[in-house]
Amino acid sequence: MDITIDFAPFFDAAANSPLTVGWFLFIRGGWIPVIVVILSTFWHVRLRNIRAAYLHHLSYTILAIDVPKLNEQSTRAVEQIFAQLAGAFSSGNLIERYLHGKNQESFSFEIVSLGGYIQFLVRTPTHFRDLIEAAIYAQYPDAEITEVEDYTGTIPRQYPSDEFDLWGTELKLNRKNAYPIRTYPQFEHTLTQKFADPMAALLEIMSHMHPGENIWIQWVVTPIGDGWKEEGIQVAKKLIGAHVKHSPTLTERALQPVRSVTGGASEVLLHGLGIAPFHEEGAAAKDMPSQIQYLSPGERAIVEAIEAKISKVGFHTKCRIVYVAKKEVFDKARGVVGALGAFSQFSALNLNSFEPAGKVTTKANYFFTTKRIAKRQRKIARAFRLRSKELGWGHGMILNTEELATVWHFPIAEVKAPLVKMTEAKKGEPPSELPIETGTLLLPYETAQDEIKAAPPENLPL
Questions:
Q1: 11, 108, 290, 348: which has the fewest C-beta neighbours closer than 10 Å?
Q2: Is the pLDDT of residue 190 over 70?
Q3: What is the predicted pLDDT for the residue at 352?
Q4: CB < 8 Å & 24+ apart, contacts of 409-412
């Protein structure tokens, strides 16, 4: 049976104009991918809108946290607070996700300096307030937690502004999420066991703000599952020379049937010509032993650090830094350079570090700089005010509990930043002999108990 394909109509259409070719392809099945693209775009826009509406209709609470001045807890206590927040992870069922827009709620851990007055804050969905308070009181029984108003309402929403100027950015990792930053165990001297608190430099910069100046630092953390750890496993395997599993992309999966057909046809053709077909030695590569015994000490330390990171709970994280001040006191050298310099402490040259995301930083060069900077100022001010996990640069980064506790924790007793808000007195239980009211007299507790006791019988044998 002979199959004949007639290309004459196509060539006739091509001889006329590109529009004729396009119409020819469209009416002969080209409309299918167009409809697929339109429906896919509509679906994703709708899903994004209902997810944003779900988060918008939630009730939120901002809590100010004050710990005692003589804070003897280590940074590990804050790590336990973040670990406890993993219990808030909930993916929801299909109806909740795609019909009602349910998506994972976030928590915002913030350090703010309002004219040099420093406060630690947590913004939480109201239904998770008990979770936050329980996690903090479990590690800091003497802490004071107070609900406060949102401080972001004190600055304008539109820029440029006649009264205020604003600089802002988001931080990102300069390598893959699998590589950790420098964490708090590495700030402890191995011999003296003295902890050089990295928070000290940041709080010192923030305490030097003048009246009318503000530095706000925000860590928006979102509980996630364990799927992010697969990247770390693959990176570690690659470093030690082990076989790395390749996950085919959507395009590769779509083309797999075509590759199978063409591959089979080529083998038949090569056999007919008497040529042995070429096969990749994939099985031999899988059986190759790892090369970990040949790693240098530095390479081995990298592998161990990656494995240590993926061994702990991770969070999708966005970090925003905003320096906003009245124009007469606005000074980027004082408010910006010092804050960014404090974050360089967390850099590990062989692992990971933070860097500003250039696409959202309020900076522009060459053309239309004023309008471009004002647009970026409005965007980052809005993202900060909403504590958004979506707005801004990319998809953020993934930090584990140890990394989060390193960049956001209460200062230890040795940190002497003068304007950090802390509790002045320790709360305690009332004394056991506190007088209580019985009738019209105030009697000690023990005396009141004695009076209500029954008298012994008169005929008690002696």
A1: 11
A2: yes
A3: 94
A4: 409/75, 409/78, 409/184, 409/199, 410/65, 410/67, 410/71, 410/73, 410/78, 410/120, 410/140, 411/71, 411/197, 411/199, 411/200, 411/203, 412/71, 412/72, 412/74, 412/75, 412/195, 412/197
Mean pLDDT within 91-96:
81
Higher pLDDT, 360 or 92: 360
How do the domains of the chain map onto residue ranges?
Answer: 6-57, 63-233+307-407
pLDDT in tens, 217-251: 999 999 999 999 999 999 988 888 876 666 666 56
Tell the burial category of 221 from Cβ atoms under 10 Å away from its Cβ (0-12, 13-18, 19+). buried
Interatomic CA distance for residues 352 and 263, integer angstroms: 43
Q: What is the pLDDT of residues 411-426, one digit of tens each?
A: 887 665 555 655 555 5
pLDDT at 419: 53
